[in-house]
Amino acid sequence: MSETVRDALALWGMEDAEHRLVAQRENSVWRVDHDGLSYALRFHRPGYRTEPELRSELQWMAMLAKGGLTVPRPVPRHDGSFIGEAEGRKVSLLTWLAGRPIGEVGHLAEGLDPFTLAQKVGAEMARMHDLTDAWSLPTGFTRPDWRLEGLLGDDPLWARFWEHPDLTAQQQDLFQATREAARADLSALGQGVDTGLVHADLLAENVMEQAGVIAFIDFDDCAFGYRDFELATFLLKFRDRGYYTEMCAGLLEGYSRRRTVAPHELELMLLLRALTYPGWIIARLDEPGGRARSQRAIRTALDLAETYLEERT
After folding, report:
1. 61-89: pLDDT as tens digits
2. Can you tell me the distance from the alpha carbon of 302 to that of 313, in angstroms, rounded to the nearest whole number?
3. Are 117 and 53 in contact (CB under 8 A)?
4. Confidence (pLDDT) at 191
5. Which residues in the chain show pLDDT less than 50?
6. Where are the beta strands (DSSP E) in 187-309?
């Protein structure tokens, strides 16, 4: 693989740079050190994103960075393009962000205050959405659509969650009933719901902090979606933590300084976000830890689905 990495780096004139693998998720990410600067070299998962989708992601990140948000900045090749290819895989290069993730899998890192931290995250989310709404999308811009059909349609973006192979017949029925009810409630919101480009994956692992400054990384799942879905994605994994109420209050306080938050819509988005994960894990059940992650995702989704249907009647 090292030879392939050097071939990729040659596209940016950095073939002799030091490099090491730092993440192996949807993409393979290598830290690159060259001439006193650090970068993130991404090998994109084959078949996961089209080249126009990748280009659009990078264009959005470049705009946000120019607007003052702390996000990785795409590094152009000599010909001005952002995307290359090595050994049949699309590759891109980003500036490296210093700092630490604020936590992982729904646990905050030591020493961070839940309310204050979430308040800062909410404020940065609002800045991101403000910058985006003021931006004219470039010609050819395209990203997945994670609104009504993408979440609850017959062929949702992350697979048919109600057909997860580990669900009982009763659980499948529960998910189907939840899907139908949520579809009706989401449709009833009409044009009033705030939509636009969202990061869509602001888990604790993708939010960085250094000296009080918040940064967002890993825009790979960015999509057209609901803005409250953005907040729900951040909150969902902390739902069982004792400081969840503080964190929720801080996030909403920070976000609502610039934009409107609808609490009833946020509750619906927490449910919708939870429903996506049993679908997402179907194709990953045989990966290391896949079964355990699957069971956690199903438990969370079932819990929220049951509560939702009970409160709706």
Report:
1. 999 999 999 999 999 999 999 999 999 99
2. 17
3. no
4. 81
5. none
6. 195-198, 207-210, 213-216, 223-226
**What percentage of the chain's residues is helix, strand, coil (to nearest 5)?**
45, 20, 35
Cβ within 8 Å of residue 234, ≥6 positions away: 118, 121, 125, 202, 203, 204, 207, 251
Sign of the Cα torsion 151, 157, 158, 164 reads positive
Specify the DSSP class assigned to residue 29.
E
CA pair distance 137, 140, nearest whole angstrom: 8
User: CA 214 to CA 126: how far, in whole Å?
Assistant: 13
Report the SS3 class of residue 12: coil
Taking the CA atoms of 28, 92, 199 and 167 in sequence, report the sign of the dihedral they define: negative
**β-sheet with 207-210: strand ranges across:** 100-101, 207-210, 213-216
pLDDT number for residue 1 = 61
Q: What is the pLDDT of residue 35?
A: 94
